[in-house]
Amino acid sequence: MLSKRGVTYVETLKEDIGRDIRRERRHLERYRRRTKRSSNAMDFDVENYHSYDEACSQTHLVTLLNVSKTFEGRPMYGVKISSSYRFKPAIFVDAGIHAREWVAPAAALYMIKKLVSQYGKDPVITKSVNRFDWYIIPQANPDGYEYSRVSDRLWRKTRSRNITVNKWCVGADANRNWGHRWGEAGANRSPCSNIYAGSRPFSEPEIVGLRDLVTWQIPNLIIYASLHSYGQLLLSPWGYTQARPDNYLDQ
């Protein structure tokens, strides 16, 4: 199949991904038995993958944001980290929009912990918090994330129900559900596809919440970054063309 599509080189990185998933699951279970959940955000262990409820319980410089409700009724939270009440240039970060990419929410939680715990101690972090408002959404797909923890480790999409075409195919690729150039390059109209863009732009409540937060509550947005895995890459717009944005050289 790959050769028919012009792929001439293939390297197998994992011979048995199922074995790795089982090992990961055993590690998480041992961690849960060994530790008690702390209510102190500074004690939050960023070296383990936490459940969605555990991550939300850790909340100082910090304002808790209730971004939206997910399809399955979970609250989707974020934080604003700021050293003053006036609006400053804003940096927005989301993570976990693809459910199975667990390291992305972990990285976002690490960012939150460092920005808060090192403010007033680390001169670089202190300057960053004084200069910018930080908005971080550590889990932009709570339903899919929890499903990937308890049922299907490789689940990618949201958990919304398709009532129009194929009722057995669940969820949409939330990363492809934004309105700009919706359904074009890199997306699929089949509800069973992992890159299904949804029945319409902003069909997923998680993306509606992100859109409304960015549009109506953040007046001075200068950077929007979305954390993903796998790959040590910085991807800049656009995804639908090879043309570079006008401000590409400013990066």
From TrEMBL:
Gene3D superfamilies cross-referenced by the UniProt entry: Zn peptidases
GO BP field: proteolysis
Source organism, top-level taxon: Eukaryota
Record keywords: Carboxypeptidase, Hydrolase, Metal-binding, Metalloprotease, Protease, Signal, Zinc
Domain Peptidase M14: 30-251
Named cofactor requirement(s): Zn(2+)
Family (UniProt): Belongs to the peptidase M14 family.
Protein name: Zinc carboxypeptidase
Source organism (scientific name): Ancylostoma duodenale
